[in-house]
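Weekend entry, working from home. Most of the wet-lab plans are on hold until the incubator is repaired, so I used the time to fold the two sequences that have been sitting in the queue since the last round of cloning. Logging both here for the record. First:
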Amino acid sequence: MERGIPIEVSGLGKRFGQVTAVDDLSFTVRPGVVTGFLGPNGAGKTTTLRMLLGLVRADRGTATFGGTPYAKLDRPLETVGAALDSSFHPGRTARDHLRVYATAAGIPHRRVDEVLEQVGMADYARRRLGGYSLGMRQRLSLAYTLLGDPGVLVLDEPINGLDPEGIRWIRVFLQGLAREGRTVLISSHLLSEVQQSVDEVVIIAKGRLVKTGTLASLELDAAPRTIVDSPDRTALAAALAAAGLAHSEGRSGFIVDEPDPGRVGHAAFVGGVELSALHRLRSGLEDSFLALVGETAPDASGGPPPDAVAGSVIPAEAADGVDAPRVSAVEAGGR
């Protein structure tokens, strides 16, 4: 039985000065699955979530929960649990921290102990938050989102910075919430962080939608390419261009939009270019994701991405922060 309601984003747009943070964005998040909201840093993910939660006013379009804007929900904390930029008073205990917001939302205090138990934090309920690790803070943020036992959860980078044990725990926990019929949306700038957690993906880049669907459909989108390198890259680039082979430069050679290494090698032979590397690049989820958002796979063969490619992404402070207020997880869920 579904407990959640769909998240519906339609024609959403937002500019901060001269920067377009979100541009005509539309997608739907279904109950009963974990959906990853993915894109590089600065893609517009956090701005989108802030508009969804009524913390930033959209210039155009709508973002609703089952057709209702967040600001018009009768009991928002019991409909939507949201964790964006978590902030904690270091002198408070976990129990006191949650009781403040339970009181404000009219939620019985017994629910505080229930959610602390649910996220495995009952033994640390009386410990001051100043001594919490990052993983414990992430669990406390999750406990806050569950205070009203909502059918929808919206989590911004919940896995960021966690150790392997914490990542495994939160993956299992989120999948369990989805199996209960809840709507679960988690954002991340790394597919590798969430690919074992999510069932479906919404991918954006530079504020625009580039892909929605299942993980399987994402992998099918990846087209095989070829890696080629030479001691004389200038001559190699000329030979590839002469053969009409589109390519981009990585740290370990050129990534050529051609699945047949033989054709690439022939182009180099015709151009009289000596090769030091020639092999097919096997495509996968991460490669497909990076191609969709306009980045190159880490050196396409293991190293960091080229500076030119990395620099082509809108800076985070431009797309996700210009004139936009910073909010806490509590503010996100308590309005």
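Second, folded right after the first finished:
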Amino acid sequence: MGRSAIVIELIEDPARPLFINLASSVIREIERGRLKPGDRLPGTRALARTLGVHRNTADAAYQELVLQGWLTAEASRGTFVARDLPDPATQNWGVRKAAPPAVSALTRPLPPSAPPPMQFTDGSPDARLMPGLELARAFRRSMTGAELRQMPGYGDPRGAPSLRTALARYLSAERGLTVGADNILITRGSQMALFLAAAVLNPGDAIAVEDPGYPLAWKAFGAAGARVVGAPVDAQGLDVERLETLLARDPTIRAVYVTPHHQFPTTVTLGAGRRLRLLELARRHGLILIEDDYDHEYRFEGRPVLPLAARALNRGSDQGDDQDRIIHIGSVSKLLSPVVRIGYATGAPDLIQTMTARREAIDRQGDLPLERALARLIDDGDLGRHARKARRIYEQRRDLLCAEIAARLGDAVAFDRPAGGLALWLRVNPDIDAAAWAAEAGRQSLILTHGSQLRLQPGPDGNSAANAFRIGFASLDETELVRAVERLKASKPA
């Protein structure tokens, strides 16, 4: 059969994504026998032109059908109806309606009466604010420059030298880090940096992590072969005294993962006293501190608080070698968009060398054109200007969210207005089950994260930590924030 020899009638169901409707239309034609096992389908460009849809829609429909086994894709030949399907003539398919293809939770169609889905993220930025034109211009200059064309082979696995140099200046100005370009490793987002940080440990070593804390960090450490042990968090952040007790019980703990600037998920800043005790504890026990400074740029009030790594590096050689035991991790994603996968890690040369060797084994080099483009954004001042603009907008959104929650939810919740960061830690009244509230909100098309999802292990103080929400406010504009709080109120258990 020729690739354009069949006309497909598109099912029109506005309650479902368009690519799902197209996939269902193809299934219907297979079940009717118009498309037989081994038949070649029109190319995505031809199909999209015939139906008046975007080519990406046709491509997504074909990919969905390949995943389900209705179609097969053959390199350089095209897309075909799967040859192992039963003969349509022997089936009773033609008398029933084709079932819609299974889809993931993110694309599952909602009932026709359901409102469009909204999400309180865990603290993601608003991708709509990203300086897209500036980034595109920098990317184009990077792609057309002579440097990339003249490279004899792969680049440095630590990342583009121009970005490492620009980041060294940026981190010195913004975070007080005195680190050279040679001691910076560029990664594909902070998640890769967390995975690589665990590579500096020996087999059988454990990492103490904040509990409640960041589950994706635990997942990265576990995937790298480290055992993860929960360290309690209280109203002031990581409880260093209880961490010391934990270290005495478990000598296999060789590293501590901490989010001191804005603890994830509670948003509190680790105070000066606890910071000093944590540094002393790390020196005394020979620990590696893995500092995740994921949203340092977003501080709205008060004086700047420098990272642990900045304090350690600035102590001076007469104070010991504590600077050798801190891996500082950050991300450009929180400044621009989660789709821009650029993170970084800094630390002593031996730590960065170990992480680089592991990175080279799984990813020989990073995205050099994107890295060079980001270096231009930093050098030209575009990234700094964007950070200042975004900080003003996010502060306004924080204030609006706090006002809306106070006005609409009353004593059902309590919170402290965060001095920085992109999320609110909303403590739910003990008489209300936060998990049940989140489930009901989901049925009303509002997705949010409750505290039980952020606990590593239950404990005597687990109920208070579990009965809360982490409410990200940056990714929603003012109108969306008001609407989201209305849904949160409407879904509150009686």
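Plan for Monday: verify the second prediction. The longest helix spans residues 382-409.
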